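Usage example:
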Amino acid sequence: MTTITSLRGGAIDAIRSADLDRKTALAQESATRWFERRISLRSPLDAPLPERPGRPDKPLLVPPTQVKKRSLHTIPGRISLLHAIAHIELNAVDLALDIVARFASAHVPNSFFDGWMQVAFEEAKHFRMVRKRLNDLGADYGDMPAHDGLWQAAHSTRNDLTARLAVVPLILEARGLDVTPALQAKMRETGDLESAAVLDVIYNDEKGHVAVGAKWFRFLCAREKRDPARTFQELVRANFRGPLKAPFNDVARAEAGLTPSFYRALTSTSQS
Ligand SMILES: [Fe+2]
Ligand SMILES: [Fe+2]
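Running the assembly step on the lines above writes:
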């Protein structure tokens, strides 16, 4: 592994890496060294942040409509779902690291970077767990096409940290809290307890990720004397395409500090 020049340098190196073992190892190593305060936040030696993260040749990236959904009652169906989750987790690694690297000069306390490196560490763990499960089922990440929606959704918020937090943890990651319980139940119903156990770990960690997002979103709003729920709605309308999809997991969202006053007004169906 190359030298980690600083937290930002390690994050950028991980984002640039197209070798996914190296990417996830660098994410975790940078997090550990940062937690132990063995590296500084930034260094003049840090490489530039790339426009796009490093990725292997496969999977092929296609429009979201071309990614097929299949029944979870078959092994190919479960592989296809796990592949989609692996892709989400991989994007989540790069997105958490991108928040750290891109906003390393923002006026925020060091605990902001602690929170996001904890997220990056766990996303790297999630990607590896899901990939291992794919391997156990005779498949691998890259075997089928995937879509680029997550990275694109984050792109428009690259110059605004408050907007980035609204879209990435509070829209995209919060969506995971809505859909995962049904997937956990379906995996158990089909008897695939190993995949269900992987989803359990992800679900519990993701509550923490939304909480990190909500905490720092509220921090930035308080500092700028802005109303958090109204600011959230404005930023989402300006930076995220389409309405939010009900039903919401109101309990898990509220536990993470994301209350209905934030997102109810943004749904397509006003009553749910
Ligand atoms: Fe994750
Ligand atoms: Fe996450």
